[in-house]
From TrEMBL:
Pfam families: MFS_2 (PF13347). The chain crosses the membrane at residues 28-52, 58-80, 100-120, 126-148, 168-190, 196-217, 250-272, 284-303, 315-334, 340-363, 392-410, 430-450. It comes from Paenibacillus gyeongsangnamensis. SUPFAM superfamilies: MFS general substrate transporter. This is Glycoside-pentoside-hexuronide (GPH):cation symporter.
Length: 470
């Protein structure tokens, strides 16, 4: 066999085919991807509900129902888009990167439109406008986030490097959170009240920053792992579904991530009301956002050595247990003022930061496990199933958040909320996270099977299986 034939045979199989090795450029590129994603994702998660209740004057229960319906559709859109992506061929710039470039512009435009208030319209118009623009934004978010999330498993096949990508992705999200949660309240609220003009200004600023980050992600990231068409996902959907149902690590990380997303988004939504009404200090939200980011940066250098020593599952479980204990303490200390409340809360943030820092590495592990079970490399499909679970979690959190705020007696027309409503908001912000984090801890410890030893063995077994097929 001549040299050209050898090269052609190699290119027909799954190979790493780049002239530049994995390095800091890839890490920064992947960081910028979630940096761009979370400018609007965190803005929407933290402040869209209060925009709808206080500016569009839509009831909290109606907002919750709208979030529930829209997010359930988003979850379906994730799976449809993931399957679509997996049936596309890799191009000159890879399989996933081009979609980030193509779809990020319409995504940002739709995000800005959510925060446009046309003066003098009826309540019915504002409700319809909110639902349509939110639905469009959520659908377009799938077209960017699915290829971005899937891309991690084709940037590198090394488990340690993937953990690093997960860490940098979380760093990107935290940087966006730092800007939105620290600067956001200062821009969005005037005299402790939501202001429509300020919200639009914030959306424009964050939109410009987001598109800049998406372009940096596109420019800096490199897809190295490619599949030939015959080894791609043109296999039957039945085989894919059978493999997914047999993928026990995927099922349990889906449930854990869904549950975590419910809690995380509920905390973000309720905290706005907690500091606006219970503590009467929206500026303190900036401090919460700052400390949340700082805890991640403190935890970040600890992740790699701790994962190397104990494993991802073990580290994430310990962090969640710490968060559970701290939130329980806060529930039994209802008379704390804002400052000491935030000081204690920071310990809980440090605890669940470890789950956030390694969660995306869990996803690449279950993608590998799917390939080991089925022989199919279906990054987009498996990631979209994972994203589906997170979107369902967002739907549940959005629905529960609105219903819960309404159920405890919150009324946007009241200048001062009743004591019962304030106590209810405090319970939502403390007791609910206590219970939810404890549930996730039990899922990881007793049900998720890929501990450190089994994850390392999976990488070895999968490598041997690929070599035997070449």
């Amino acid at each position: 066999m001549n040299q050209n034939a050898v090269l052609q045979a190699a290119e027909a199989n799954m190979e790493v085919t780049t002239t530049r090795p994995f390095g800091i450029r890839d890490k920064l590129g992947y960081l910028f991807g979630d940096f761009g994603n979370d400018f609007f994702f965190i803005l929407v998660s933290s402040f869209l509900m209060v925009y709808y209740t206080d500016i569009f004057h839509i009831s909290a229960a109606t907002v919750g129902f709208m979030f529930l319906i829209a997010r359930l559709w988003d979850a379906v859109a994730d799976v449809l888009w993931g399957r679509f992506i997996d049936t596309r061929k890799s191009g000159h710039h890879g399989k996933f990167k081009p979609w980030i470039f193509r779809m990020s512009f319409p995504l940002i435009v739709s995000g800005v439109l959510m925060f446009v208030k046309i003066p003098g319209m009826s309540n019915g118009f504002y409700l319809a406008y909110a639902f349509v623009t939110y639905l469009i934004w959520g659908t377009l978010y799938s077209t960017v986030n699915i290829p971005y999330g899937s891309m991690a498993s084709v940037i590198t096949s090394d488990p340690v490097e993937r953990t690093t990508l997960s860490t940098f992705r979380t760093m990107g999200g935290m940087l966006a959170g730092l800007i939105i949660n620290v600067v956001g309240p200062l821009i969005l609220f005037v005299n402790n009240k939501a202001d429509s003009g300020r919200f639009l200004l914030g959306a424009l600023i964050f939109g410009i920053l987001a598109i800049t980050c998406y372009m940096a992600c596109y420019k800096l990231s490199t897809e190295r792992i490619t599949l030939s068409e015959t080894e791609g996902t043109r296999a039957g959907l039945g085989k894919t579904l059978k493999g997914l149902l047999k993928n026990r690590p995927l099922i349990w990380i889906l449930i854990a991530s869904l549950t975590f997303m419910v809690c995380f988004m509920l905390i973000g939504a309720v905290n706005v009301y907690l500091f606006k009404d219970y503590f009467g200090n929206t500026k303190a939200l900036s401090m919460v956002g700052l400390i949340q980011t700082l805890t991640v940066f403190i935890a970040m250098p600890m992740v790699k050595p701790l994962v190397a020593k104990f494993g991802k599952k073990e580290l994430a479980s310990a962090g969640l247990l710490l968060a559970t204990i701290v939130y329980a303490l806060l529930y039994f200390l209802p008379h704390l003022t804002a400052t000491p409340f935030i000081a204690v809360l920071s310990v809980a943030m440090f605890g669940y930061a470890f789950f956030n820092l390694v969660v995306w590495a869990f996803v690449t592990d279950v993608i590998d496990y799917h390939e080991y079970l089925t022989g199919l490399r279906e990054d987009g499909t498996v990631y979209s199933i994972y994203s589906f679970a997170r979107k369902v979690g967002q739907a549940i959190a959005g629905g529960i958040g609105g219903f819960a705020i309404a159920a405890v007696g919150y009324d946007a027309s009241h200048k001062v909320q009743t004591q019962g409503a304030l106590d209810g908001i405090h319970t939502l912000a403390t007791l609910v996270p206590t219970v939810v984090f404890l549930i996730i801890f039990f899922i990881l410890v007793f049900l998720y099977p890929l501990n450190k030893q089994r994850t390392n063995q999976l990488a070895i077994d999968l490598d041997e299986k690929r070599k035997s097929q070449n």
